[in-house]
Hints:
Blueprint: H1 4-8, H2 11-40, H3 45-54, H4 58-69, H5 74-84, H6 87-99, H7 104-113, H8 116-125, H9 135-159, H10 170-185, H11 189-204, H12 212-230, H13 232-244
Amino acid sequence: MSSVRGCLHHPQFRAGVREMSSVSLGLAAWGLVTGVAMVKGGLSVPLALLMSLTVFAGSAQLAAVPLIAAGAPLWVIWATAVCINLRFVIFSAQWRPFFRRFPRGQRLALGYISADLSYVLFMKRFQEPREDEGQIEYFLGGSSLVWLAWQSASVVGILLADVIPTEWGLGFAGVLALLGLTWSMLSDRATALAAAVAGAAAVAAFAMPFKLNIVVAIAAAVCLGLLIDGGGDAGRRFRDLLSRAGGRPSRATT
């Protein structure tokens, strides 16, 4: 990669920071909620700090903490986290042509700081891999801001969890923040349909133990996405229906 000073002063690095700053407050609110939830859920402060820094995935953290507190089997905790983060397999496959020139260690570091909105904004800006467009600088600018906004708020939530009263309704604020971020990703009707199916499945399976309704929702959305993308005659009928309705099928439906 380019030098640190050159990267920080690159116009694309500043562009990444600027475009991501519009959603950084929502991400910080969600990070604060996650930090408080980890401690309120029974994790010690050191363990919560370790989890925040090593598991840079708020949805996986929030799904795992209740399972840990309930004494769920380890395989259930791991399976839940893996299912929730399956979308990053799709993200990494899309990023591979852009970043495969870097050594494995650097690619792992890029994967660690990657996030949903980093993927969305990056793919909207760049259509094909080119080394002269500042693509890596743009990614680092946006992803670094996401990481800093999330981790700083999460650490504050962890350290002040016993001071922040639950009556403040931070959980509801976090839900609103997440809904806002989700809304920004609904780029077409196929994506919106997958989100609606996931929400309906989560509500229908709400009574399942260990928050497994989340896994059911993810599985339903993934199955629908695969059906729309290439499910033979049924997939073609879905795509034709969406096309007639004025939507454009998306390849990132989870």
